[in-house]
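#onboarding

Welcome to the new folks! Below is a worked example of what a typical request in this channel looks like: someone posts a single protein sequence, and someone else replies with the predicted structure as tokens. Don't worry about understanding the tokens yet, we'll cover that in week two.

Example request:
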Amino acid sequence: MTSIAQTPITGIDLTGFAEREPGVWTDAAGLILSVHFFPLAPDLSAPLHAPERLRFDCAQGTARAGGGLIEAVVGTVDSVPALHQLVKMPLQSRRGQAFIGSWTLPKERCSTVVKVQAAEGATTGLREAAVMSQVGPADFFLPHPYAGGGQFGGLPYSVADLEQWDAQFPDHPLTLVRATLRRIAPTVTLDEQFKTQPPFTGLGTAGPTAAPATAPRRGWFRRKGV
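Example response:
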């Protein structure tokens, strides 16, 4: 089977998307879909079978970057164990937020990522204001569910980001990112050589700056991305 953009991905539903460059597509709503392959040991700080530690570390790392982790869930993509994350980040050039949803498929010496992202337009804060008017200010910002009752810093955890509000805001970038990634993920198919690579164990990694104990084995795919 032919790979897509030199990644282990051999198939993905691109309905509604137009190619902008190899491995990157956009749609009429402003969503950006991209696929990536990293021929390096994943920088996840914990294995997928330790989800509480993994979620804590992901939330903490996102906060240190100035953003907020909305949700992190362990699942599978084409039967490969994977980590789903949904994060929000402040825009650098203007007011507002960007929302990024991803599935990371980690293996011992490489990983594949499917990512969907979108940013708020000129009008920002309408979803937050509407939800706050319904739940009240006291119940709008809550302790982060992965922080053990506290917060991490970065963008605060808000009930406005919960999926239960998506139906009221069908055109909001968070709603679109969440729905699009949910639609696309089940359509992803992977090269069998990637699927049979040794699984990610989390041993020997210590966060985003950790380096593999030995030189990484170069993958058969070459495309990288951020």
